Amino acid sequence: MAEHFNQVQFIGVTRSRDKVLITKHEHHCNVGVDPIKKMFKEMTEMNDGQNYAFQVKDTAWHLKSMNGLIYVLITKNTYPQSIAAQCLEEVNRQFIECVPEKRWTSAKEGQLDSTTSAVLDKICTTYDNLSEVSTMHKVMGKVEVLKYQMQDNIAKALDNCVALENIEETSMALKEQAKVFETQSNTLKKKLWLKNLKMKLIIAGIAIAIITVITVIVCAQVGAFDGDDK
């Protein structure tokens, strides 16, 4: 049998819309339902995801509203709030896992006690031993730090991959542009070569024509074209 430290006394789950206490677990104490009902009558509307805490005599009441449910944890008034907040998160996680939404949205007061009794008792036993849960809290903190570091490293690696992909895409684009430029350059060279060839042929033709004309004129002047008078 697990040792009892009387640190955690009560865990309850209340539906937000009508404040019905659909399940509860009293851990080696007798809290009852009436104080919970009275507390909800006096409380104003709660913000989803926000932690609330207040003292009642020698106990501390910790509450958190999440996804249509309000989780209630009653502990000794010296219980660390950070661990209480962690406990409420654990209650939320395990409650959602073992109770389908369809059941808790229509459940009556106390209707889910038998379904959640073992789960809530285990959570109470775990978080009742502060020395163990503090160690677990530290380990989980280190795990979270490592997780964030790994996520950061993965994000950086993905960024590097994206950068490499961008470089590769840019390189491929430059290669394609180089091919297009080379093709256009070769085409332009051919056009210029043909143009130069035409110019050379034209100049050569003009030169030949001029030489021919000059030759004819010279020959005419020297009488090369005169007939034989004899």
UniProtKB/TrEMBL annotation:
It comes from the Eukaryota. The keyword Membrane applies. One of its GO terms (biological process) is protein transport. Keywords: Coiled coil, Membrane, Protein transport, Transmembrane, Transmembrane helix, Transport. The chain crosses the membrane at residues 201-224. Its main location: membrane. Residues 36-120 form the Longin domain. It is found in: Endomembrane system. It holds the Pfam family Synaptobrevin. The keyword Transcription does not apply. It is a single-pass type IV membrane protein. Residues 135-195 form the V-SNARE coiled-coil homology domain. InterPro entries: Longin-like_dom_sf, Longin_dom, Synaptobrevin-like, Synaptobrevin-like_transport, V_SNARE_CC. GO terms for cellular component: cytoplasm; endomembrane system; membrane. PANTHER family: SNARE PROTEINS, VESICLE-ASSOCIATED MEMBRANE PROTEIN 9. Belongs to the synaptobrevin family. This is V-SNARE coiled-coil homology domain-containing protein. It comes from Octactis speculum.
